[in-house]
Fold this sequence. Notes:
The strands form three sheets. Strands 1, 2, 3, 4, 5 and 8 form a six-stranded antiparallel β-sheet that branches. Strands 7-6-9-12 form a four-stranded antiparallel β-sheet, with no helix packed on it. A two-stranded antiparallel sheet has the order 10-11. It has one helix and twelve strands; from the N terminus they run ββββββββββββα. The protein folds into two domains: 6-142, Immunoglobulin-like, CATH 2.60.40.10; 143-183. By secondary structure, it is an alpha+beta fold. The protein has one helix at residues 144-179; strands at residues 9-16, 25-27, 31-33, 37-41, 50-59, 65-74, 80-92, 97-105, 112-120, 124-125, 128-129, 133-140. Helix content is 20%, strand content 45%. Residues 1-14 have low confidence and may be disordered.
Amino acid sequence: MSTAPSSVSTVQAVTPSPSPAAGAVDLGGVVHVGGLVSEVRLTPNPFEGSTLLSFTVRNVSTTTFDATADFWMEGPFGNRLAQTDAVQLPQLKAGESRVVSADLSGAGQWGLVTAHATFRPPAEVGGTTLSPLTRDTTVLVFPWLVALLLLAAAGAVIVVQIVLRLRLRRSATEVELGAGAPA
């Protein structure tokens, strides 16, 4: 399994979130981590494009703490397409929610990729021991280059059928004209 170079990824937004995300997982009654959400961003170049991955973190403790998050994507064969590590989540205050996100490039024409994010809280918050939590999602990346090639192939088949029909009609007309001529 290969690791994508860090230049493949651009990161980083940590923005305030007014409410906890649906489907949040509770880490020891101290932190809630929402599900991983993806947004595919296509470009005209079939080998570019990016996928924005994000999740919401809510501090339900009475302590302010720092955390980090790692994001990565894998292709259908488990090959690592892109990654970014240690996205900083500084000074998450008590009662605060934030959306943590990373923009990963490299989904290209894979069609179906798996995206992952690991939230890494401090080892302990307010006397509660915490451990990292990984969230996953499957991302459908429309392989428009493949679709364009299939469309071109279908167009070529139609053109060939039209040309063959015209030739058959011309041959049939020549046979009819030839049948009426004296021998």
